[in-house]
DNA sequence: CCGATCGATACGTACAGCCTATCGATCATG
DNA sequence: CATGATCGATAGGCTGTACGTATCGATCGG
């Protein structure tokens, strides 16, 4: 049985007239009769009762007509699915992001724009620490990932990173802290006070990068407390446990016990990167395109 | 796109190896490569990434694989549906029956046996008066019908009637009625008493046949009351409104106010017939076969 | 009774799908 | 690093089959 048989049969069943059906199908009548007969022989079932004057569906023919239509529709759907999947309009996209990514307006805007443009792509968002994202993408557990890194992250050749945002670092303190609001504040000043920082396994390298910057400015940082979440970090700063240094976009999180003070150092910058496989699935490539367009 | 393409693609996707897939498909490797390529060209989508060492599904290929499997399954189902419908194992069967048919054990047994043997046939049972059944079958609103008639019913040539039961008539009266239990009771005796009978439009000809029998026995029947249902008929007899004559199988309906007395006349018989179109749908033919086997 | 209609049959043809043979690329191995 | 094995792609020839034209046989209306 081939699709030809189904297409021909459906047309004959609709017209109940071999010559007309053949004309619609763009063939002549004899081969149409042959193909219908061939289909009946293969099924071992008479689908049409035909005299030289009238063609009617048998009971089995009526049942088969429905099933044949369903089969043709399913085949159509298969072709459409393939094309849409290839163009990235259909499927699933697994996006990883670190703790600070959601607070970046450009990232949120890009995700929103992507959802509007590709509504049939199932977005699977998951919070993953920076380095773990790279591993996850390599293991095909993730398609793309947002991670923070001052410089371009070192990646295996099959992965690509695009910088989507470059931002300054700020110091977060209690309002009554001596550093609060001080103009021309420098990293070395901040390093003189005990710090609340992310635990290394959660920071995705941010803490290490921060410490490296401080040491480069000639000060040795001291850890007051390590935490695992943004809310804890800022909560403990507001409680006076210590101060911390975060990316400027985190200023979106305001609180009565918190003030953010700019750092004057040229080196006090950080960046968000979008990491993806060089051979990305179509949906991922579209996502990268939208993110670089909106946020880049 | 033809089924060939789907079958070939599914096999390659399962083996991820052209030569092995070709062997399983019973063809050689080159035409398999050609057909896959043809499929990809038609869809405009690359379904497989292939180097000379490794074959992998693209994302679109994976989505298409599912859809292709569904399409092939749908086609299989279409063939099965046609065959099962042709053999009468699938579909709908519309059975008409008159008021007395359900009380006949053979009819009930036949319907039960049919349900067991053909569980996937949707049985649509409907109560239809005898002559209306013939009209309904001719109008293709009914497939088969049970009706009561002393002699073979007059039918157009495209319909066939099979007698499935021949039974004697009995008189139904109150227990204190003078005819109750009288040995050798004859139709002429019964005709001497006022009768409760079905209204003509509901009786399906039974009342007319009964009156003809009574007149043939030399008596003129008198109507005490006409009714539209079996329960009303027997209820009014039990209430003493009159007596009635019914088929023996109705004795199954017992009541405190009712007794049945046999009629001695040779002519006091009735029969149930199964009517069906000569060109019945398969399910109807099977039904007729089972009924004649069980009840005939 | 005759012509029109319509599906089936007969038969020739062109193309497509399959075959075998071979190539080119990649990878494992000594 | 050279060599052989593996595997998909390509080339070219052959055959089956789906389609075309011509015609037949049956049925129905006028």
Structural class of chain A: alpha/beta
Give the N-to-C terminal Cα separation of chain A: 54 Å
User: What pattern of helices and strands is seen along the backbone of chain A?
Assistant: HHHEEHEHEHEEHEHHEHEEEH
Provide the CATH architecture of the largest domain in chain A.
Answer: 3-Layer(aba) Sandwich
Could you say which overall geometry of chain A the principal axes of the C-alpha atoms support? rod-shaped
- What is the mean pLDDT of chain A? 92
Largest interface: A-B, 37 and 37 residues
* Biggest sheet features of chain A: 7 strands, mixed
Number-wise, the strands of chain A total: 11
Please identify the oligomeric state: homodimer
The CATH class assignment of the largest domain in chain A is: Alpha Beta
Question: What do these coordinates show?
Answer:
With 296 residues, chain A is of the alpha/beta class. Chain A folds into 2 domains: 3-86, Orthogonal Bundle (Arc Repressor Mutant, subunit A), CATH 1.10.10; 92-296, 3-Layer(aba) Sandwich (D-Maltodextrin-Binding Protein, domain 2), CATH 3.40.190.290. Chain A contains 11 helices and 11 strands. In chain A, strands 3, 4, 5, 6, 9, 10 and 11 form a 7-stranded mixed sheet that branches. At the A-B interface, helix 1 and helix 4 of A face helix 1 and helix 4 of B. Chain A binds a DNA duplex (30 and 30 nucleotides) through residues 4, 17-19, 27-31, 33-35, 37, 50-55.
Quick description:
Two copies of one chain form a homodimer. The first copy, chain A, has 296 residues and is α/β, with parallel strands linked by helices.
């Amino acid at each position: 049985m081939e699709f030809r048989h189904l297409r021909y049969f459906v047309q004959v069943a609709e017209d109940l007239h071999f010559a007309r059906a053949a004309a619609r199908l763009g063939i002549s009548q004899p081969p149409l009769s042959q193909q219908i007969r061939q289909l009946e022989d293969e099924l071992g079932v008479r689908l049409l009762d035909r005299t030289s004057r009238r063609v009617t569906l048998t009971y089995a023919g009526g049942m088969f007509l429905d099933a044949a239509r369903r089969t043709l529709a399913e085949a159509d759907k298969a072709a459409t699915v393939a094309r849409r999947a290839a163009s990235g309009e259909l499927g699933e996209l697994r996006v990883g992001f670190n703790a600070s990514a959601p607070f970046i307006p450009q990232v949120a805007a890009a995700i929103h724009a992507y959802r509007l443009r590709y509504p049939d792509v199932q977005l699977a968002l998951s919070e993953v620490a920076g380095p773990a994202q790279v591993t996850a993408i390599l293991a095909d557990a993730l398609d793309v990932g947002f991670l923070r890194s001052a410089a371009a992250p070192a990646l295996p050749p099959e992965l690509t990173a695009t910088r989507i945002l470059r931002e300054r670092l700020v110091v977060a303190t209690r309002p009554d802290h001596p550093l609060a609001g001080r103009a021309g504040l420098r990293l070395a000043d901040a390093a003189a006070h005990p710090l609340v920082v992310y635990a290394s396994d959660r920071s995705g390298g941010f803490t290490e990068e921060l410490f490296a910057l401080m040491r480069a400015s000639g000060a040795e940082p001291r850890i007051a407390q390590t935490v695992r979440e943004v809310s804890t970090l800022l909560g403990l700063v507001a409680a006076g446990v210590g101060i911390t240094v975060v990316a400027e976009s985190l200023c979106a999180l305001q609180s009565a016990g918190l003030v953010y003070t700019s750092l004057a150092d040229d080196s006090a910058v950080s960046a968000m990167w979008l990491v993806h496989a060089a051979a990305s699935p179509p949906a991922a490539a579209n996502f990268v395109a939208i993110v670089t367009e909106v946020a880049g």
